[in-house]
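quick q for whoever's on today - can somebody do inverse folding on this one?? i tried earlier but teh output was garbage lol. tokens:
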């Protein structure tokens, strides 16, 4: 980034400028008219804090939110500083767009809004229906000398859910069904993971017995459904439904000695690995025989 970058943000015929430099955080200048004179519209409210009293920190330097959800970026201002004269500006780094000053919004994107939060000592920027293009850096700023600001990075993720083993599984009767659901890319581990069988919630305390679930929460959450002594009645569609990610499903077929036609056809065809192994063995035998004949 050059020593200093500057972009103009147009509002109602005037221009609102946000400046970012390597040595100083962004600063918002007064709007000016096209001819260089004062703008006719009301300028953004001035930031009224003194340098000695001001202090600003972020409640989180990195915020992760799921695509389509609501992001809340929060800066805490020093105790007693948020009064009627205090204004906090929010600026987006990617295009130096001035987003808000106080409660007033300076972008045409209505998904952005700001206001006092917490116990009255914090100022939050809210972004509703978050899109992937919203990912990047944001800065809350109080206009003092020297300027006081804090940087927050927003990450936007797309949660995913898969059931290991594929969407179609064949299980021998009497064996154990082991369905493992993998949940990834969620801002926080899901609060719960529901399992259903043929649209009915799996009952771990049913008279059938032998049904249990194990959950490991973390950056990647695992939920394993175990059903012992599989019977015909255990066939059907199983769905894994995390609280913060889309659902995934798998169809289970219980086999009683028989095998599906597709499995027969695969078993009767030599595998590529087997063919390659046979070809390699033939080549080795041929080269060995040729070498002995030359001796």
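ok took a stab at it. sequence:
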């Amino acid at each position: 980034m050059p020593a200093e970058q500057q972009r103009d943000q147009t509002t109602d015929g005037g221009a609102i400028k946000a400046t970012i430099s390597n040595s100083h955080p962004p600063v918002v200048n007064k709007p000016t008219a096209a001819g260089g004179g004062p703008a006719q519209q009301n300028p953004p409210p001035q930031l009224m804090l003194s340098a000695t009293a001001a202090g600003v920190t972020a409640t989180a330097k990195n915020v992760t939110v799921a695509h389509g959800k609501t992001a809340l970026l929060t800066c805490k201002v020093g105790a007693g500083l948020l009064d009627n004269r205090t204004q906090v500006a929010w600026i987006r780094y990617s295009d130096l767009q001035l987003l808000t000053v106080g409660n007033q919004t300076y972008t045409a994107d209505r998904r952005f809004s700001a206001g006092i939060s917490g116990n009255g000592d914090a100022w939050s920027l809210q972004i509703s229906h978050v899109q992937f293009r919203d990912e990047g850096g944001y800065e809350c700023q109080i206009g003092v000398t020297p300027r006081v600001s804090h940087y927050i990075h927003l990450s936007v993720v797309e949660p995913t859910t898969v059931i290991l083993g594929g969407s179609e599984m064949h299980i021998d009767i009497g064996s154990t069904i082991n369905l493992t659901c993998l949940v990834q890319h969620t801002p926080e581990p899901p609060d719960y993971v529901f399992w259903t069988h043929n649209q009915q919630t799996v009952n771990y305390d049913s008279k059938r017995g032998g049904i249990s679930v194990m959950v490991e929460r973390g950056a990647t959450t695992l939920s394993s459904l175990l059903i012992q002594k599989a019977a015909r009645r255990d066939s059907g569609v199983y769905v894994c439904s995390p609280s913060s990610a889309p659902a995934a499903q798998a169809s289970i077929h219980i086999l009683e000695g028989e095998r599906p036609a597709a499995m027969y056809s695969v078993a009767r065809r030599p595998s590529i690995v087997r063919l390659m192994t046979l070809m390699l063995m033939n080549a080795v035998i041929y080269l060995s025989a040729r070498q002995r004949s030359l001796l």
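fwiw Confidence is low (pLDDT under 50) at residues 1-17, 19-55, 261-271. also The longest helix spans residues 272-294. so keep that in mind when u check it
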